[in-house]
Amino acid sequence: xxxxxxxxxxxxxxxxxxxxxxxxxxxTARYILSxxxxxxGFEPAPIEGKFNRVDExxxxxxxxxxxxxxxxxxxxxxxxxxxxxxDAAVDLNSKRCPSAxxxxxxxxxxxxxxxxxxRLPVVMDKDELDQGHLGTAFGxxxxxxxxxxxxxxRRPHRxxxxxxxxxxEDVIAFVPAWSSEKSVxxxxxxxxxxxxxxxxxxxxxxxxxxxxxxxxxxxxxxxxNAPDPDPEDGLE
Length: 236
Description:
Blueprint: H1 4-10, E1 19-23, H2 27-39, E2 43-46, H3 54-63, E3 68-72, H4 85-94, E4 99-103, H5 110-113, E5 123-125, H6 131-145, E6 157-167, E7 170-175, E8 179-187, E9 203-208, E10 220-225
Parallel strand pairs: 1-2, 1-3, 3-4, 4-5
Antiparallel strand pairs: 6-7, 6-9, 7-8, 9-10
Helix pairs in contact: 3-4
């Protein structure tokens, strides 16, 4: 990414002329988004090629020194990549290169996206992307990725998770500290570190961003078996 001093100058507002990398497996979508960015006064940097590994794509992105990255999630359809865009966005964020995941399938991929959500400050719908949302997305990504400032709605808390049902490889659960009425669906594979004797009615512990405004923003990580209830255990 461009130097952090330049990013700092752009923090309060995504400055005109900022180079924005565009990752999308669809040539037309990549072209259209790049055109929008140019009309809004930014410098688009569409990333073209075929990528077998995440690091290949990330290296290509970093080579253009972007100030921000917009990354589609489903990159496999046309053979552009054999991994999800979320894998690349997470890697870029870990390198302090602010990145936002954009997708036309957020509702369909809600369960899938929980794999990466703790490391993705911004996931946004392609159809809602306009100049205002772009600036907001950059601000959120910059604050967390570069400055290390985790907002209250993104901050994890160790809390109880109540298993409501198992449906194949899916888990449906309630996080009472977040909502006692809305359930959360996630992949069973996320529950590493928890025994196999999980069933409806099981009570476990995980780190969850209980300040999330919407269920699409919820992530769960670092699962563990819950001990017997103790009013002094500090759990929410």
